[in-house]
Amino acid sequence: MPKMKTNRAASKRFKVSGSGRIRRSKCGAQHNMIGKSRTRRRRLRDQDMVDKALEGRVKLLLPYG
Questions:
Q1: Could you tell me if 50 and 24 are in contact, meaning their C-beta atoms sit under 8 angstroms apart?
Q2: Considering the domain boundaries, does residue 1 fall inside one?
Q3: In angstroms, what CA-CA distances link 62 with 3, 6, 13?
Q4: Of all helices (H) and strands (E), which one includes residue 11?
Q5: What CATH number is attached to the domain comprising 24?
Q6: How many percent of the chain have pLDDT more than 90?
Q7: Is the pTM for the entire model greater than 0.85?
Q8: CA distances for 24 relative to 1, 16, 42, 49, 60, angstroms
Q9: Is the separation of the CB atoms in 6 and 52 below 8 Å?
Q10: Which domain holds residue 15?
Q11: Mean pLDDT over residues 4-25, rounded?
């Protein structure tokens, strides 16, 4: 049986954590940082988890995750 293809766009945006949940980066941290508070910029550095409702759909795109 042939290998399954990983969705390349999803593999660049999501990583699977050790417990099997899907990690993602928060939005709004690419540019225009001067207008944001220091606390907000610090919180944007952290990774976030994909919601449980969407987790299954993301896992379909990452078959070997």
A1: yes
A2: no
A3: 12, 5, 11
A4: helix 8-13
A5: 4.10.410.60
A6: 97
A7: no
A8: 31, 9, 16, 6, 16
A9: no
A10: 8-61
A11: 96
- Terminal alpha carbon distance of the chain: 19
Query: pLDDT at residue 65 above 90?
Result: no
Q: What amino acid is encoded at 65 in this protein?
A: G
Q: Across the chain, what does the average pLDDT equal?
A: 96
Q: What are phi and psi of 9, to 5 degrees?
A: -65, -40
Decide if 21 is inside a domain: yes
The mean pLDDT of 14-22, rounded to a whole number, is 95
Q: Beta strands 22-25 and 14-16: pairing type?
A: antiparallel
Please determine, for residue 19, whether its predicted confidence score (pLDDT) is greater than 90.
Answer: yes
Residue 2 lies in a domain: no
